[in-house]
Amino acid sequence: MRIKYLYQQIFSHIGVLLVAFLVLSLIFTNFVENLVYDNKTEELISYGRNILDELERGDDPADQVINQYANVLFGRDIQFSVFDERLNLLNPIRWRGPAVEFTEKEWRKLKIGEPVVYNYDLKRFDEDVTLVALPYREHGKFVGGILLTSPIKGTREMVSEISQYLLFTVLIALAVSFILSWFLSRVHVNRIKKLQEATSLVSSGNYSVSVPSSNFDEIGELANDFNQMVDKINSSMEEIDSLENRRRQFMADVSHEMRTPLTTISGVIEGLRNDMIPEAEKEKGINLVSKETKRLIRLVNENLDYEKIRSNQVKLNMEEIELQEILEILKDQLELQARERGNKIVIEAQENAHVFGDYDRLLQILINIAKNSIQFTSNGSIILRGRMEEDYSVLEIEDTGIGMDPAEIDKIWRRFYKADLSRTSNPYGAFGLGLSIVKQLVQLHDGEITVESEKDEGTKFVIKIPIKKSE
User: Fold this and answer.
1) What gap in Å lies between CA 208 and CA 198, rounded to an integer?
2) Is 45 left (phi over 0), alpha (psi -120 to 50) or beta?
3) Most buried one in 74, 201, 253, 333, CB count within 10 A?
4) What is the pTM of this model?
5) How far apart are CA 468 and CA 471, in angstroms?
């Protein structure tokens, strides 16, 4: 059976209040009854001791003392009688109280000077009655005692009246609590419904939804967590969409890049097979096939390198490398490409500066960055710098090319990202993997790489790799 949360809250609140008032009523009623009986008991004990004191002093005859008190106490509806050690009534006043028989334990209490108290209710007598027995001793010897009894008038009426007041109080409290419970439960249910509706929207694909949140209670904290979850999902979906778009663009670029060399290779092979290429042009055709084949290999290797680095399958062979030496090797490898675009490569290396790293991977880092610099620079300079700082070996590659917007700098490290290639026709770095690989390799060396660039002013890459700790 399905019960709405609103009704569960109301029933639970009302149930708790009912149980609390019921327990309170029982405790209060019992307290009032005990209080009335205790007051009557103290009154009877006080009168009984006064009578016994008069009898023990012996200033007046016993019958005279008893009769004097009888006139006073009977007028207050209090009966009393004196008895001996066999419980025989000694005074001539007729005893109209209940029959009394003491147990051995009660006799022992009387003999050692302690009072005995009885409380009788209406189930046995016509009204509530309190009976008190006090011991009477002469010269330290127990010779009897005195019985006093008095009805408890109005106890039932008092309890009944108190119960009525309690009932009215309970009804008023229940009415107020019902209104408050309904209001508070309604507020909580509405907040939960908003979360439920927002969850349904998220499950249907709407990741821009949010719910009111606060730190007031657990529901507010749940709303906070829900909003954070939706924000993360939204960011993840945007990243997934971005990755998917970049993947599609990458596949389109790769397909385009592969189509041209494959078409060239296929055409040259067909020409050679069918003797359609003159003998003097065959060597040129073979060189063209070799060049286009290397281009395809470079594309495949870039993808394989990235996957190896990303999955931590690359092992570094760390050694001490002279910065001057590695920068000169870099210059030798790229000088022809730089000259084709009218650029010159300049080396500015600190004497005896060195770096601790993997030679092949460091050269791969520098080649990727330098190729990008060459790609986006025409008739300018590519400056290669190397120096030592306090805790780092620093490598810089600076160009005087077209530069980048600030918003573009953070994007260049993304896989498949390509800068605006409409501004250049150079194929190097065109696949958008080079700088992503660079960053991964620098991080493998526990280093860091930063970029400084201004539009139409050039770009500078700065690589810092920690100096070997043993040094």
Assistant:
1) 10
2) alpha
3) 253
4) 0.42
5) 6
Please report, as a single letter, which amino acid is at residue 252.
A
List Cα–Cα distances, 54 to 43, 65, 204, 230, in angstroms.
Answer: 17, 7, 97, 92
- CB neighbours of residue 57 within 10 Å: 9
- Residues 6+ away with beta carbon under 8 Å from 188: 5, 9, 219
DSSP one-letter code for 412: G
299: tokens are 């594309």
Locate tokens 């700065």: which residue?
462
d(CA 413, CA 436): 5
pLDDT tens for 119-141 read 765 444 456 778 888 888 777 78
The H-assigned helical ranges of 61-154 are 62-75, 104-111
Rounded-to-integer distance, Cα 102 and Cα 110, Å: 10
Q: How far apart are CA 457 and CA 404, in angstroms?
A: 9
Cβ neighbours of 440 (radius 10 Å): 20
Q: List the structure tokens of 196.
A: 């439920």
156: phi then psi, degrees, rounded to nearest 5: -65, -40
**What count of other Cβ atoms lies within 10 Å of the Cβ of residue 223?**
22
Q: Which tens digit of pLDDT belongs to each residue from 298-333?
A: 667 766 666 666 666 677 888 999 999 999 988 988
Provide the pairing of β-strand 344-349 with 318-322. unpaired
